[in-house]
Design goal:
411 residues; 9-stranded parallel β-sheet; 3-stranded antiparallel β-sheet; 17 helices
Length: 411
């Protein structure tokens, strides 16, 4: 890919934002925000994930309320708190406990129901709280879920049960088994019904690595549908499509159940970029958008620089999605061993807005606690970066008055 020195508009942004101190960055940020807003246009999606690492904040009633207040003041409108991680429910789940998947309940330090209070606090400040079903079909090998239901696990062609993920070694629940689909459905409906959540979010783990699906159950199902055995090559296009279509069919069924239980509840999806998601994870999210399964889309593009980031914004499936539903690009706001400069976050947000896209940050703790700048400076920078509480998105191809145009993709 050609360097930034060959792309005048982007080079200008980089020089201004990266070549000055934080005060200089903040002085430039208003130029990156669209100047006008139209109340009859869709609201810009501005979200943040609340992960297992954020539990010390969420479990303390006072700290949680302060965090929600701060996010509301900064202009966020979506919170995505984790509720399913490691094969465990992060809320008082009757479904999980009745199935003996856990013998404990996640509660706050004051004995409170964390999810219930977060939903209430968010709603009081005008924030939608959309619980995040983080692990999807994934589970740790030693989890009670994996240990109690070995037959529910799918496998690779050589009989392997595990793969390597960001969470370490994991097994995969077979998304084609009725028992697995019922468990996921029961958990999701529990959150939507009993807690009155504004919706539910599925990420890149509501999927299956393409190497999996060679268990006896799935082999028999494929043979029944096609009259053939699954191809030895996991990349075979027909085999990839068959499995992806089956996952799509389940998600369609699950979305219908959610909307029937709670009309208006949102189905939020946060997959990887499309080629990766479909070919490697059997996640045909473009079809999820086209079929109306998804109500909002947040594409995970965690790139370390603007040069490798911005080409994903102009992908046709991303631009198609934003014509249909609120669409955002997810930005890494930092990790404990890899802080993200505020200037880079500002560049990415400006690039998003130049293409009519919202933003979501991964994750809450790193917004201001793990950055290279002091927390107070990061909070002030985020306030200027995000701008008005309700920022309307423009129509197709619309840009703010001072938003820099993006160059065409490299050949």
């Amino acid at each position: 890919m050609a360097g930034l020195n060959r792309r005048g508009p982007l080079r200008g942004i980089a020089l201004v934002l990266c070549g000055v101190l934080l005060a200089g960055v903040l002085a430039c940020l208003p130029l990156l925000s669209p100047a006008a807003k139209a109340q009859d246009q869709p609201e810009e999606l501005r979200g943040v994930w609340l992960t297992a690492n954020d539990m010390p904040v969420l479990r303390d009633r006072g700290r949680m309320q302060a965090a929600v207040d701060q996010l509301a003041e900064l202009g966020f409108n979506r919170l995505y708190p984790v509720v399913w991680n490691g094969g465990f429910a992060y809320y008082p789940s009757r479904v999980s406990e009745a199935r003996q998947l856990q013998d404990f309940t996640f509660r706050g330090l004051q004995g409170q129901d964390i999810l219930a209070e977060l939903i209430s606090a968010g709603r009081n400040r005008g924030l939608k709280v959309i619980p995040w079903f983080e692990f999807g079909f994934m589970a740790p090998p030693e989890s009670p879920l994996a240990q109690r239901h070995r037959s529910w696990l799918t496998q690779t062609r050589d009989g392997g049960l595990t793969s390597t993920s960001a969470a370490g070694r994991v097994v995969w629940l077979n998304p084609f088994r009725p028992e697995v689909q019922q468990l996921i459905t029961d958990l999701v409906l529990e959150v939507v019904n009993d807690w009155g959540a504004d919706g539910i979010q599925f990420d890149d783990h509501m999927s299956l690595p393409r190497e999996f699906g060679y268990d006896p159950f799935t082999r028999a199902l494929y043979r029944k549908d096609t009259g053939k055995d699954p191809p030895a090559n996991p990349e075979d296009p027909a085999w990839v499509k068959w499995r992806a279509d089956r996952i799509t069919a389940f998600l369609d069924q699950l979305a219908r159940a959610v909307r029937a239980a709670r009309p208006g509840a949102l189905i939020s999806i946060s997959p990887n970029y499309y080629d990766f998601a479909y070919k490697l994870q059997l996640q045909d999210w473009r079809e999820w958008v086209r079929r109306g399964i998804a109500d909002e889309l947040l594409v995970q593009i965690y790139r370390p620089d603007l040069e490798s980031y911005w080409p994903h914004l102009i992908r046709p499936e991303v631009q198609e999605a934003r014509q249909r539903i609120p669409t955002a690009i997810a930005v890494m706001s930092g990790q404990r061993n890899r802080p993200t400069p505020l200037a880079l976050m500002a560049q990415k947000l400006a690039a998003n807005r130049a293409r009519g896209l919202g933003v979501a940050f991964f994750y809450f703790e790193s917004l201001w606690s793990l950055g290279p700048e002091p927390p107070a400076e990061r909070i002030a920078g985020l306030a200027q970066m995000l701008g008005p509480r309700r920022q309307a998105l423009g129509g197709a191809g619309a840009r703010g008055a001072s938003a820099p145009p993006l160059p065409p993709p490299p050949p």
